[in-house]
Design brief:
By secondary structure, the protein is of the alpha/beta class. The protein is 36% helix and 22% strand. The chain has 8 helices and 7 strands. The relative contact order is 0.16. InterPro entries: Methyltransf_25, SAM-dependent_MTases_sf.
Length: 233
């Protein structure tokens, strides 16, 4: 499960930010026939839209815990399938590809439960492409700071972070930046490191690719992209 504060919000994807997981998925899907694809944490569907247009023969499901996000996605892309649900209780399976950009790190379930769910939802030989915080000193420092900020959170502090974001990202509109203030206080529950990789392996998921992705600002937690393949056996 994810934390309740994400349940009833509309998250506007940042149009200036490239989704690494979706870019990887587009390259992976090219010239390979039809796919059944799930996006976990689809928000309003902006990141999934290029895949919807580029691969019309494939079947896509956009999943988000926020009903507001799903209502907006349904308005924007009425011919696609969208579902408002916690991923851990979502029932549809047999996906060839699962995409998750920066959402799995905040799930409250155990690593074992998450790895088991991903493995059970993928077809044999299927792939999950996800981004998670990197295991490094910078991430540790960010997490320590976020824990302190959670204790100090107030409206003036929220306003300060929004003011700072507007100066660091002048090309992004205020509402989109305001959506992201909450992430200054969110401490992820898992990172891209050996401990999590070992859990994935126990559930038949092999890390086939693992590399760092570019940050938009120095204040952003470093992330890594992982391509996880389910055993074909």
């Amino acid at each position: 499960m994810t934390e309740a504060r994400f349940d009833e919000t509309t998250y506007r994807p940042d149009p200036t930010r490239k989704s690494n997981a979706h870019a990887w998925a587009a390259s992976y899907m090219a010239n390979k026939g039809r796919f059944k694809v799930l996006e976990i944490g689809c928000a309003t569907g902006l990141d999934l839209a290029p895949l919807l247009r580029g691969f019309p023969e494939s079947q896509f499901v956009g999943l988000d815990i926020s009903q507001e996000n799903i209502r907006e996605a349904t308005k924007l892309y009425p011919n696609s399938k969208w579902a408002a649900s916690d991923y851990m209780v979502f029932q549809e399976r047999s996906f060839d590809l699962i995409i998750s950009e920066r959402s799995l790190s905040v799930f409250e379930c155990s690593d074992d439960a998450l790895a088991s769910k991903l493995a059970s939802d993928l077809q044999p030989g299927g792939v999950a492409v996800v981004t998670l915080p990197a295991s490094c000193l910078c991430t540790t420092a960010h997490f320590t700071l976020k824990k302190t900020l959670r204790r100090l959170r107030s409206r003036p502090l929220d306003a300060f972070f929004l003011w700072l974001a507007q100066r660091l990202r002048p090309g992004v509109d205020k509402d989109t930046l305001a959506d992201r203030v909450i992430y200054m206080y969110v401490v992820p529950r898992r990172i891209a490191g050996r401990k999590f990789y070992d859990v994935l392996a126990r559930h038949g998921l092999t890390v086939e690719q693992d590399y760092g992705v570019m940050r938009c600002t120095p204040f952003e937690t470093p992330h890594r992209l992982l391509a996880l393949r389910k055993s074909a056996a």
